[in-house]
Amino acid sequence: MKEFDVVVVGAGFAGMYMLYRLRRMGLSVLVIETADDVGGTWYWNRYPGARCDVPTMEYSYSFSEELEQQWRWPEVMSAQPEILEYANHVADRFDLRRDIQFCTRVTSAVFDENASRWEVVTDRDKHYRCRFCIMATGCLSAPNVPDFDGKDEFEGSSYHTGLWPKDAVDFNGKQVAIIGTGSSGVQAIPVIAEEALHLTVFQRTPVYTFPANNHPLNTKTESRYKENYLQVRHMQRYSPVGMSTFMLPKPNPDAPPPSSILDTSEEERREALHDIGFSAFRTYSDVYTNIEANEVACNLYRDTVEQLVNDPDVAEKLKPRGYPIGCKRQVFDTDYYEAFNRDNVTLVDLTANPIECITPLGLRTRQDEYKFDILIYATGFDAMTGALNKIDIRGKQGQTLVNKWADGPVAYLGLQVHGFPNLFTITGPGSPSVLSNVLVSIEQHVEWISDCIEYLGKHQIREIEPTTDAEETWVEHVNQVAKGTMFTAPTCNSWYLGANIPGKTRVFMPYVGGVGRYRKKCEEVVTSNYEGFTLSPEVNG
Ligand code: FAD
Ligand code: N01
């Protein structure tokens, strides 16, 4: 059995950077990846329209100044092919592939208490031993395909947006159906509608989506970023969501403090919406914290849908109701509503008419039968815990992670779990992860973990794991800060809460306290000699 200092699972942006750091520390590292190449999210999600919804000048690695200065992004929010090209460039530039075992899925990771080693097993029946096991398995990497009756009997081609094939899918002259109107569906629908003979959109919950306002990146903006990258990166790291305010207009110190949307007149609200779009909602003090104020914003939103969609019946079906803006991951679109004005796009409202089964030729709802050539599942992911729970992870005394997390994930800082020594999770539950520009959170975790491993080596520490106290206190804090936000509103059913997966315990998983605040907490833990963690010395140490 081959032994490594560290085995890393996953070769997305997290696994790639982890490998780079550990290798520079002189450690032996093996990265194991299911795909046949690097990129993670950007390898798997090749569906038409897939792109980043934060500026890619900020959604990019900061660890190499040369890389940062030399790389050129074509658009403000670049598309999947360019982001994948970037991942490939990073792999080439830092010669990462030689330590990555591709086309291999990790099936189990079991802790051997006597030897203090993890034994990692793959679907190729290979066994590896390592001192540290790092899960870089991603928060949105376990696709969710609903278990519809007859799912396997469809005779056409079916695809999940998160498992999209490498060869382009030809929609020309085809009847296409798509289930799901979250971020992926909203990005794919307008692009597929351009090519398909006909597109039928099966919608269960109408979405709140804001215009992305994407455009080519001009050289002036690019230069400003590149000249000020140090400052930009610092701002990102200590910001609420991993974004700098570098390109935003400086706040006017004489401007009045944000007011309640409830205290403004209908006319003022409409004027604000007209002038600055949906970001107007953020200028009020209470839209994201007070359900009554939120409903005022929702009403304005619904009026806007009415203005954008020609057919009043279709507009009515597209209006979200019954849950607040800001409860789900914010969706950004390009010409989403306009797509429903096309003659070749039909909307089916599944709340009135739910799917009964998939048939060989299409699908059947309670009231109708639909036929199509291509079926697309834009049905999301078993988020945050899905990829981890697919691996049989066993810690001390054979305890499984699945059991430990049966009532929702429990972890300290989203980095480690009590009972699972020397196992780390990058962007794990209880960290800002998916509530941030994820690359900023990935870099912070990778750097924290590598510094920790270095510290353990220097101080002859054999094992690190959090105390149950620290873990419980942190989980309580994670719940506490989410209380009163729209994320945990009783009417909210989001994947942040696990509500998209039948049977999954309803628990709010990410940390909403902010990237900067979280980072400071992680720094304090280190300065206080890893407060909240138990450090066990080497047996002969
Ligand atoms: P991933 O990129 O998911 O990589 C994890 C890797 O682990 C995968 O390649 C997977 O194959 C592998 N893996 C998992 N389990 C195993 C196993 N058992 N054995 C072997 N390999 C395994 N975030 C943003 O901040 N901004 C955005 O605009 C944004 N856009 C997104 C768009 C889409 C379509 C999606 C799905 C997500 C988006 N995200 C965005 C979130 C995105 O997932 C992160 O930004 C980031 O790419 C995650 O990197 P990662 O390395 O942590 O995980
Ligand atoms: O998944 P989702 P996604 N029957 O879970 C519907 C990131 N991302 O892939 O709301 C019928 O958001 C479901 O309906 P409902 C981002 O973090 C980012 O779109 O459960 N419908 C919903 O409409 C995002 O949040 C970008 O009622 C069913 C849709 O499928 C995350 O990935 C782009 C159903 C799923 O929406 C996931 O987004 C893409 C069923 N049985 C993704 N089951 C960027 O632009 C599910 N649905 C950055």
| CATH architect. name of the largest domain | 3-Layer(bba) Sandwich
**What structural class results from the helix and strand content?**
alpha/beta
Bound ligands = flavin-adenine dinucleotide, 3-acetylpyridine adenine dinucleotide
Mean of residue pLDDT?
96
The name of the CATH superfamily of the largest domain reads FAD/NAD(P)-binding domain
How many alpha or pi helices? 17
Sheet of most strands: 8 strands, mixed
CATH C-level class of the largest domain is Alpha Beta
Distance between the termini: 26 Å
What is Rg? 24 Å
Structure in a nutshell:
Helix content is 31%, strand content 18%. The chain contains 17 helices and 20 strands.
Explain how this protein is built.
It is built from 17 helices and 20 strands. With 541 residues, the chain is an alpha/beta fold. The chain has two domains: 2-142 and 382-537, FAD/NAD(P)-binding domain, CATH 3.50.50.60; 145-208 and 326-380, 3-Layer(bba) Sandwich (FAD/NAD(P)-binding domain), CATH 3.50.50.60. Helix 1 (13-24) runs parallel beside helix 15 (438-458) and helix 15 packs parallel to helix 17. The longest helix is centred in the last third of the chain and has 21 residues, at 438-458. Flavin-adenine dinucleotide (FAD) binds next to helix 1, helix 2 and helix 15.
